[in-house]
Amino acid sequence: MWNTKRYDIIVVGAGPAGSTFARIAASKGLSVLLLERKTRIGVPVRCGEGVIDSGLRLFYEPCPEWIATTIDKFCFIAPNGSSIAVKLQEKGYILNRNVFDSDLAKFAEKEGATVVTNANVNSLLFENDKVAGVKGICNNEPFEITSKLVIGADGVESRIGRFAGINTKINLNNIDSGYQKTISGIDVDRNVCSFYISNELAPGGYIWIFPKGNDSANIGIGISGKAHINGKSAKTRLDEFLDLKYPKHKVESISVGGIPLSKPIKQMVTDSVMLIGDAARTVNPLSGGGIILGMKSAVKAADVAVKILISDKEPTKINLIDYQKQWMNSEGKQINRIYRIKTAVDKLTDKDLNNIIERVNKLPVEKRSLARIFRACIPQKPSLLFDVAKVFVGY
Ligand SMILES: Cc1cc2nc3c(=O)[nH]c(=O)nc-3n(C[C@H](O)[C@H](O)[C@H](O)COP(=O)(O)OP(=O)(O)OC[C@H]3O[C@@H](n4cnc5c(N)ncnc54)[C@H](O)[C@@H]3O)c2cc1C
């Protein structure tokens, strides 16, 4: 029985980060329990589902069933309706995350991890003031399970970090309210992702149209938490946009969720606990993309955890801190840079945005690139050019 054993590691949350961690740790011979509160892993989807091919390939060979559409162009639409299309240097995908997330958990299971759904972790288990496992409810039955290490892969609303005494609070300015509808019956180019960038439409964020094939798309909005409180909600804004642009659309599903657009969390580990993925704010603060970064954090955390547990060392904060150090010296540094760019971009007015699109439109098509657009965003802040260049080299 899964709930009577003691494990080396309990992973809470079977999103891309949790399942990737569980797969790696189990493949090294550690006993791993992956707990997911949903009944079906990956359902409902709460994501625009966009990823870049090279990012995905760092971890998995893309499976045809994971891919709804292949993307070769981005289109940016200014507040005044003018637009620019940019050909991507490499292809992107809009995933079927229900299939993707479920397959990643199956890969973990294949490597020997025990995967349990309907298992909601509601607190940590302490022994002599030390984290010693988790408590929760599965199919109305309470459970208590012990382990040497607990991984908080429980997404943006992570409670594992908080239970373990880590400050996971996030400033309202640094969290976007995300609201998305998957709609069908619309005419949409299946290979182009569109972004409406306008403070009037989406203050502190943007509206995205990510095609899913068969005349359907994920259309969503992210607005800053502050804008949400002081003005129209993300839902009202998206509904107005959809009624205007696609009056005959049919709603297939709705997803709502916070998108952390912050600097990395200050503390990613404590005694017997590590945070990965959204729980550790491993999200690009400009785009809101977190699938690939979440899996990158999982790989780094798993490498450190495996080394410690296999050599019979205690998973103390001091022993686990290498994960945090490695992150902060690589992707964490990148996230800090992108955060600085986001702060500059947040200050652009709708007039600035119109000017930028106009300026980029004057460039020959072959010279338009994402880096050029961002360069055009910050003519008054040349110091940020350096950061922008690094961001685009790294991603
Ligand atoms: C509207 C929206 C659009 C987005 N679009 C994109 C995009 O296009 N591209 C991109 O890269 N990123 C996007 N993101 C971000 C992306 O979804 C996340 O960064 C990514 O899912 C993070 O993966 P994760 O494994 O850390 O967490 P999650 O995918 O959130 O997985 C966490 C899992 O933990 C489970 N869980 C939580 N609490 C418990 C508990 N107590 N007990 C047991 N299980 C628990 C949850 O049910 C969930 O399955 C978007 C986010 C939103 C909200």
In what range is the share of β-strand residues?
25-35%
Q: Rg, please?
A: 21 Å
* Tally of contiguous helical segments: 12
CATH class of the largest domain: Alpha Beta
Defining key terms:
395 residues; 8-stranded mixed beta sheet; alpha/beta; 12 helices; FAD/NAD(P)-binding domain; 30% strand; disordered C terminus; 16 strands; D-Amino Acid Oxidase, Chain A, domain 2
What is the structure about, briefly put?
With 395 residues, the protein is α/β, with parallel strands linked by helices. Helices cover 34% and strands 30% of the residues.
Mind explaining what this structure looks like?
Helix content is 34%, strand content 30%. Helix 1 runs parallel beside helix 3 (97-110) and helix 11 (370-377) packs antiparallel against helix 12. It has three domains: 7-45 and 98-170 and 265-329, FAD/NAD(P)-binding domain, CATH 3.50.50; 71-91 and 172-260, D-Amino Acid Oxidase, Chain A, domain 2 (2-Layer Sandwich), CATH 3.30.9; 345-394, no CATH class. It is globular. By secondary structure, the protein is of the alpha/beta class. The structure holds flavin-adenine dinucleotide.
What is this structure's SSE topology?
Layout (H helix, E strand, L loop, with lengths): L6 E6 L3 H12 L4 E4 L14 E3 H5 L9 E11 L5 E13 L1 H14 L3 E3 L2 E9 L2 E9 L2 E12 L7 H4 L11 E10 L7 E5 L9 E8 L2 E9 H6 L3 H12 L4 E11 L8 E2 L2 E3 L15 H20 L6 H13 L1 H16 L3 H12 L8 H8 L5 H12 L1
Parallel strand pairs: 1-2, 1-9, 2-6, 4-11, 9-16
Antiparallel strand pairs: 3-5, 4-5, 7-8, 8-9, 10-13, 10-14, 11-12, 12-13, 15-16
Helix pairs in contact: 1-3, 1-7, 7-8, 9-12, 10-11, 11-12
The protein binds flavin-adenine dinucleotide.
The site of flavin-adenine dinucleotide has 37 residues, from helix 1, strand 3, strand 7, strand 10 and strand 14.
